[in-house]
Design a protein that fits this description.
Protein name: Flavodoxin
Structural class: alpha+beta
Low-confidence stretches: 23-44
InterPro entries: Cyclophilin-like, Cyclophilin-like_dom_sf
Pfam families: Cyclophil_like2
Organism: Phocaeicola dorei
CATH architecture of one domain: Beta Barrel
Largest sheet: 8 strands, antiparallel, barrel
Radius of gyration: 27 Å
Number of helices: 2
Mean pLDDT: 82
Keywords: Signal
Helix content: 10-25%
Oligomer: single chain
Length: 173
Protein backbone atom coordinates (compact mmCIF):
# COMPACT_ATOMS: atom_id res chain seq x y z
CA UNK A 1 0.00 0.00 0.00
CA UNK A 2 2.83 2.37 0.74
CA UNK A 3 4.32 1.66 -2.64
CA UNK A 4 1.08 2.65 -4.39
CA UNK A 5 1.05 6.01 -2.59
CA UNK A 6 4.66 6.68 -3.56
CA UNK A 7 3.91 6.04 -7.23
CA UNK A 8 0.63 7.97 -7.14
CA UNK A 9 2.11 11.24 -5.78
CA UNK A 10 4.55 11.89 -8.70
CA UNK A 11 1.85 10.88 -11.18
CA UNK A 12 -0.63 13.40 -9.67
CA UNK A 13 2.05 16.12 -9.62
CA UNK A 14 2.85 15.48 -13.29
CA UNK A 15 -0.85 15.63 -14.21
CA UNK A 16 -1.40 18.94 -12.38
CA UNK A 17 1.68 20.54 -13.98
CA UNK A 18 0.64 19.36 -17.45
CA UNK A 19 -2.82 20.82 -17.05
CA UNK A 20 -1.45 24.15 -15.83
CA UNK A 21 0.92 24.36 -18.80
CA UNK A 22 -1.93 23.83 -21.24
CA UNK A 23 -4.14 26.53 -19.71
CA UNK A 24 -4.25 29.69 -21.87
CA UNK A 25 -4.58 32.46 -19.34
CA UNK A 26 -6.81 34.59 -21.58
CA UNK A 27 -9.98 33.87 -23.46
CA UNK A 28 -8.83 35.25 -26.81
CA UNK A 29 -7.14 32.77 -29.16
CA UNK A 30 -3.92 33.88 -30.85
CA UNK A 31 -4.54 34.94 -34.43
CA UNK A 32 -1.59 35.24 -36.81
CA UNK A 33 -1.03 38.80 -37.97
CA UNK A 34 -2.36 40.30 -34.74
CA UNK A 35 -0.12 41.64 -32.01
CA UNK A 36 -0.16 39.45 -28.90
CA UNK A 37 -0.89 42.45 -26.70
CA UNK A 38 -3.63 44.60 -28.16
CA UNK A 39 -2.95 48.30 -28.43
CA UNK A 40 -4.78 50.27 -25.77
CA UNK A 41 -6.79 53.34 -26.79
CA UNK A 42 -4.59 56.39 -26.41
CA UNK A 43 -1.39 54.41 -26.97
CA UNK A 44 0.92 54.22 -29.94
CA UNK A 45 2.14 50.83 -31.19
CA UNK A 46 5.30 51.14 -29.08
CA UNK A 47 3.16 51.47 -25.92
CA UNK A 48 3.86 55.20 -25.50
CA UNK A 49 0.78 57.32 -24.67
CA UNK A 50 -0.54 59.45 -27.50
CA UNK A 51 -0.51 63.17 -26.86
CA UNK A 52 -2.46 65.35 -29.22
CA UNK A 53 -0.70 68.06 -31.14
CA UNK A 54 -1.25 71.12 -28.94
CA UNK A 55 -2.17 73.23 -31.97
CA UNK A 56 -5.03 70.84 -32.75
CA UNK A 57 -6.70 71.94 -29.49
CA UNK A 58 -6.70 75.66 -30.39
CA UNK A 59 -9.78 77.53 -31.63
CA UNK A 60 -10.71 81.05 -32.68
CA UNK A 61 -13.90 82.65 -31.38
CA UNK A 62 -15.00 85.58 -33.53
CA UNK A 63 -17.45 88.19 -32.24
CA UNK A 64 -18.11 90.90 -34.82
CA UNK A 65 -14.69 92.12 -35.93
CA UNK A 66 -12.85 90.79 -32.84
CA UNK A 67 -11.28 87.35 -32.59
CA UNK A 68 -10.11 85.73 -29.37
CA UNK A 69 -8.42 82.37 -28.94
CA UNK A 70 -9.21 79.41 -26.73
CA UNK A 71 -7.46 76.17 -25.89
CA UNK A 72 -9.62 73.08 -25.56
CA UNK A 73 -9.08 70.26 -23.07
CA UNK A 74 -7.93 66.84 -24.19
CA UNK A 75 -11.05 64.84 -23.31
CA UNK A 76 -13.83 63.09 -25.24
CA UNK A 77 -16.31 65.95 -24.84
CA UNK A 78 -13.83 68.56 -26.14
CA UNK A 79 -12.85 66.30 -29.06
CA UNK A 80 -16.56 65.93 -29.94
CA UNK A 81 -16.91 69.73 -29.82
CA UNK A 82 -13.83 70.19 -32.04
CA UNK A 83 -15.18 67.67 -34.56
CA UNK A 84 -18.20 69.93 -35.17
CA UNK A 85 -16.24 73.06 -36.03
CA UNK A 86 -16.71 75.51 -37.63
CA UNK A 87 -19.87 76.61 -35.80
CA UNK A 88 -21.90 79.77 -36.21
CA UNK A 89 -24.10 80.12 -33.14
CA UNK A 90 -25.79 82.63 -30.89
CA UNK A 91 -24.61 82.71 -27.29
CA UNK A 92 -27.46 83.54 -24.91
CA UNK A 93 -27.11 85.39 -21.61
CA UNK A 94 -27.69 83.16 -18.62
CA UNK A 95 -27.78 83.93 -14.90
CA UNK A 96 -27.32 87.69 -15.08
CA UNK A 97 -24.31 87.62 -17.43
CA UNK A 98 -22.52 84.95 -15.37
CA UNK A 99 -22.33 82.77 -18.46
CA UNK A 100 -23.12 82.66 -22.16
CA UNK A 101 -24.75 79.42 -23.29
CA UNK A 102 -25.87 77.49 -26.34
CA UNK A 103 -27.32 74.02 -26.92
CA UNK A 104 -25.38 71.85 -29.40
CA UNK A 105 -27.56 69.49 -31.42
CA UNK A 106 -27.05 66.64 -30.85
CA UNK A 107 -25.69 67.00 -27.32
CA UNK A 108 -21.95 66.54 -26.88
CA UNK A 109 -20.67 63.24 -25.53
CA UNK A 110 -20.06 63.29 -21.79
CA UNK A 111 -19.52 59.59 -21.20
CA UNK A 112 -16.33 58.78 -19.33
CA UNK A 113 -15.36 62.44 -18.91
CA UNK A 114 -14.28 63.82 -15.53
CA UNK A 115 -16.99 65.96 -13.98
CA UNK A 116 -16.75 68.79 -11.53
CA UNK A 117 -15.15 72.23 -11.61
CA UNK A 118 -15.34 75.67 -10.04
CA UNK A 119 -15.47 77.83 -13.18
CA UNK A 120 -13.61 81.11 -13.50
CA UNK A 121 -13.98 83.74 -16.24
CA UNK A 122 -13.05 82.20 -19.59
CA UNK A 123 -13.81 78.56 -18.75
CA UNK A 124 -15.73 76.66 -21.42
CA UNK A 125 -17.88 73.91 -19.90
CA UNK A 126 -20.79 71.57 -20.49
CA UNK A 127 -23.62 71.56 -17.96
CA UNK A 128 -24.26 67.81 -18.14
CA UNK A 129 -27.91 67.68 -16.95
CA UNK A 130 -29.08 70.01 -19.73
CA UNK A 131 -26.36 69.37 -22.33
CA UNK A 132 -25.65 73.07 -22.90
CA UNK A 133 -22.22 74.58 -23.46
CA UNK A 134 -21.54 77.42 -21.03
CA UNK A 135 -18.75 79.98 -21.35
CA UNK A 136 -18.28 81.62 -17.97
CA UNK A 137 -17.90 85.41 -17.84
CA UNK A 138 -17.86 85.44 -14.02
CA UNK A 139 -16.61 83.02 -11.38
CA UNK A 140 -19.09 80.51 -10.02
CA UNK A 141 -19.15 77.91 -7.25
CA UNK A 142 -17.99 74.34 -7.75
CA UNK A 143 -20.49 72.06 -9.46
CA UNK A 144 -20.18 68.33 -10.09
CA UNK A 145 -22.51 68.80 -13.07
CA UNK A 146 -19.94 70.87 -15.00
CA UNK A 147 -17.44 69.34 -17.41
CA UNK A 148 -14.56 71.59 -18.44
CA UNK A 149 -13.86 71.38 -22.17
CA UNK A 150 -11.69 74.46 -22.69
CA UNK A 151 -10.61 77.93 -21.69
CA UNK A 152 -10.50 81.29 -23.47
CA UNK A 153 -6.89 82.47 -23.54
CA UNK A 154 -5.69 85.60 -21.74
CA UNK A 155 -8.29 88.34 -21.25
CA UNK A 156 -10.33 87.23 -24.27
CA UNK A 157 -13.45 86.72 -22.17
CA UNK A 158 -13.95 90.51 -22.23
CA UNK A 159 -15.35 90.23 -25.78
CA UNK A 160 -18.24 88.09 -24.43
CA UNK A 161 -18.82 90.05 -21.21
CA UNK A 162 -21.63 92.19 -22.59
CA UNK A 163 -25.38 92.08 -22.00
CA UNK A 164 -27.62 90.31 -24.48
CA UNK A 165 -27.30 87.55 -27.03
CA UNK A 166 -24.13 87.46 -29.12
CA UNK A 167 -23.66 85.86 -32.57
CA UNK A 168 -20.26 84.13 -32.71
CA UNK A 169 -18.24 81.94 -35.03
CA UNK A 170 -16.02 79.23 -33.54
CA UNK A 171 -13.43 77.55 -35.75
CA UNK A 172 -10.11 75.75 -35.52
CA UNK A 173 -7.05 77.93 -35.50
Amino acid sequence: MNMKKLLLIPLLLLTVLSMAACGGGDDEPFRPGQPETPEQPGEKEDGEPETPDVSSLNVNITVGDRTVTATMEDNAAARDFLSRLPLEITLNDYNNMTEKIFYPDPALTTEGVTRGCAPTPGDITIYAPWGNVAIFCKSWSHSNALIKIGRIDGNGIEVLSIAGDIPVKIERR
